Amino acid sequence: MNQKLEANVVATPHHNLIIRFATQADLPQIAHIAQITWNATYSDTIAAENRRDFLERAYKPENLASAIDAPGHWFYVVELERELIGFGHFLRRYHRTQARAELVRLYVLPGHQSLGVGTLILRTGFAALAQAGVEQCFVSVQETNTQARKFYERHGFIYHRKHGQFLGTQIVVLVQYIRPISESGIIATP
Ligand SMILES: CC(C)(COP(=O)(O)OP(=O)(O)OC[C@H]1O[C@@H](n2cnc3c(N)ncnc32)[C@H](O)[C@@H]1OP(=O)(O)O)[C@@H](O)C(=O)NCCC(=O)NCCS
Predict the structure, then answer these.
(1) Which letter does DSSP use for residue 100 in this model?
(2) Where are the beta strands (DSSP E) in the chain?
(3) For labeling, which of 17, 95, 128, 140 is most exposed (least CB within 10 Å)?
(4) What's the CA gap between 114 and 91, in Å, rounded?
(5) How far is residue 106's CA from residue 121's CA, in Å, rounded to a whole number?
(6) How does DSSP classify residue 61?
(7) Mutate which of 35, 46, 77, 114 to test ligand 1's pocket (most atoms within 8 Å of Cβ)?
(8) Global pTM?
């Protein structure tokens, strides 16, 4: 039995949400959530063919398989009544002097947003990162994604820099945030 998986299952009394580590069997459902949520979030800012090509490549189950139950990866899914409704993936990033990680994906199905799922994933992830000795967590978010930016700022992420990144035939402008990870993993949020 996977010790890491067992140790980190957390159930919340609210909305019967269960957070646990993703398994290989979850990958098709994760790809489905990504597709729906990407299309709802980025339809005005990312061209349809760029969205499609990115999703096909990044969420192909065989391309995500190495992130499951692997050292340096914390890949969570949230279940509501046995259905997956969101996921978040933290990844250790090498740095010479500082223990760093990055939140590389965080997606909650549109019909289940603003119910605390994103917060649950962040809090669980921060606590795990703190336990692993990580000192800073990075996240990059599209500059125009004001809802997500507000969400991260509320959760202690501090603006670091702006950078452009190719996404197929276009360049998207991303804002990178950094959040210190305290020993307990939790920084008070309003
Ligand atoms: C951004 C995202 C991950 C946040 O997840 P979420 O589950 O909606 O977040 P939460 O419900 O925890 O918090 C969202 C808001 O609801 C509020 N909220 C939290 N729990 C709540 C509850 N029980 N009832 C009502 N509101 C609640 C919070 O105040 C929060 O407000 P804020 O966004 O202004 O900080 C999610 O909305 C999402 O997937 N968006 C589209 C994709 C995306 O942009 N992903 C990030 C890419 S970098």
Answers:
(1) E
(2) 10-11, 17-21, 73-80, 83-93, 100-108, 136-142, 158-167, 170-180
(3) 95
(4) 24
(5) 8
(6) H
(7) 114
(8) 0.90
- For residue range 35-62, list pLDDT tens digits in order: 999 999 999 999 999 999 999 999 999 9
CB of 119 within 6 A of ligand 1: the answer is yes
Average pLDDT, the chain: 91
Domains in the chain (CATH in brackets) are 3-180 (3.40.630.30)
Closest to 19 in 3D by CA, of 173, 95, 125, 90: 125
Could you count the other beta carbons within 10 Å of the beta carbon of residue 189? 11
Instruction: Please tell me the distance from the alpha carbon of residue 71 to that of residue 130, in angstroms, as a whole number.
Output: 15
Give distance in angstroms: CA of 10 to centre of ligand 1: 19
Which residue reads 């700022």 in tokens? 153
